[in-house]
UniProtKB/TrEMBL annotation:
Pfam family, one: HTH_3
Protein name: XRE family transcriptional regulator
GO molecular function (one): DNA binding
Family in the record: Belongs to the short-chain fatty acyl-CoA assimilation regulator (ScfR) family.
Top-rank taxon, per record: Bacteria
Transmembrane annotation, as ranges: none
Length: 390
């Protein structure tokens, strides 16, 4: 008979509930009936060691945690800045938040212990400041000029942000059965003086990802950690009352940073004559045609009627664009067999975070088990990251 794991029933129940997993789904993971599973949460019986390990992995909790005498203190949940009518965060969303919090907590403690300087831009402003001023400070701090990108806009923003000490994590899934829903979570920020983190749901294409990234950077600048899901808002179609003031402010900052007033107003009137020109200009700025049109409307460069007409044309063009992108990705997948798994993992870990963990491991200050756990990669595969970072 298999050895039983004499776990604490209250912790098993807490681990399942905090992962937003039902009793039925938890029971399926170890091929027992829901009634049988509940005997473990009720403390009547105990799972085997193997079953308990499977559950610990499924709930994304250390196996040893199940044996504590009482429920431990968990990470503080991030402030939810999403719309009033948003659905509850699902398991995938909660797991990615927890994973990033673990990384952020480790690196922040490390930096504080070794005496790293705090970052002066974290919390430098508040929601009461002028979003144009905050946007300019972000551009100045990161040394970014939207009229003169040296590489693709999103790549430049990520590289410059990480060079300034901000960790950027991007992912669209945790594994094949845990995919991130962009309608639930587009991004989140953890504003920390030592190690601020930004997460972006890469389920979107590059333009909304970039807007999300800069929106979350605005959260760092006003020190408002939290989760976002309605970004790049079309203010003319949706009531402002449903949006949190912090989200509205951070959207304004992002719009000003990605489309500075002096840059947009100096564009010729012919820019808005056709959607081809609008699309071309938007692509150069790394933003969507929709964001560009909203910005032009807010700056009174186009009228409300022009906006509605151009927006409908942009929607039609966007649908064609998505279809072309879908075909292109399918062809690339056939040729290459899908994206590099280690590149996806590197983006999820954050390039900056990966480099720091690997350096700490290589100089002997970090154990193999901790380094492997932080990067979710076996030590003998670290060279894959080395090649990608190089």
């Amino acid at each position: 008979m298999a050895d039983k794991a004499f776990i604490t029933s209250e912790i098993l129940k807490w681990a399942r509930k905090s992962a937003k997993i039902s009793v039925e789904d938890a029971a399926k993971k170890i091929s027992v009936s829901p009634e049988r599973y509940l005997t473990w949460e009720d403390g009547i019986d105990f799972p085997t060691i193997r079953q308990a390990k499977i559950l610990a992995k499924s709930f994304r909790r250390p196996f040893s945690l199940f044996f504590l005498p009482e429920v431990p203190k968990d990470f503080h949940p991030l402030q939810d800045y999403r719309r009033d009518d948003s659905q509850e965060l699902d398991t995938a969303s909660l797991f990615i938040i927890r994973e990033v919090q673990e990384k952020q907590n480790w690196i922040s403690q490390l930096f504080e212990e070794i005496g790293e300087n705090t970052l002066p831009f974290v919390g430098k402003y508040s929601i009461n400041d002028n979003p144009e001023v905050v946007a300019k400070d972000i551009l100045d701090t990161l040394k970014i000029n939207p009229s003169d990108y040296k590489k693709t806009p999103i790549s430049e923003w990520i590289d410059k942000a990480e060079s300034a000490g901000i960790f950027i994590s991007r992912a669209s899934f945790l594994h094949s059965r845990l995919v991130l829903d962009r309608d639930l979570i587009q991004g989140f920020a953890i504003a920390d003086k030592y190690a601020p983190f930004v997460f972006v749901n890469s389920k979107n294409w590059n333009a909304p990802q970039l807007f999300t990234l800069v929106h979350e950077l605005a959260h760092i600048w006003i020190a408002k950690s939290g989760v976002s899901n309605e970004i790049e808002i079309d203010f003319t179609d949706k009531p402002k009352s449903k949006f949190h003031p912090v989200e509205l402010f951070c959207n304004q900052v992002a719009a000003n940073a990605l489309m500075p007033k002096e840059l947009i107003t100096q564009l010729g009137n012919d820019t808005f004559e056709s959607n081809n020109k609008i699309f071309k200009q938007s692509k150069e700025l790394g933003i969507s045609s929709f964001a560009f049109l909203v910005r032009a409307l807010n700056l009174n460069l186009i009228s409300q009627s022009e906006y509605k007409s151009l927006k409908q044309d942009a929607q039609n063009e966007f649908e064609k664009f998505l279809e072309r992108e879908k075909i292109k990705k399918e062809k690339q997948k056939e040729r290459k067999g899908g994206p590099d798994a280690y590149l996806l993992r590197l983006n999820k870990n954050s390039k900056l975070f990966t480099r720091i963990v690997m350096d700490s491991f290589n100089n002997g200050s970090l154990s193999p088990s901790i380094a492997s756990n932080l990067l979710n990669t076996q030590i003998n595969k670290f060279q894959k990251f080395e090649k990608l970072l190089a």
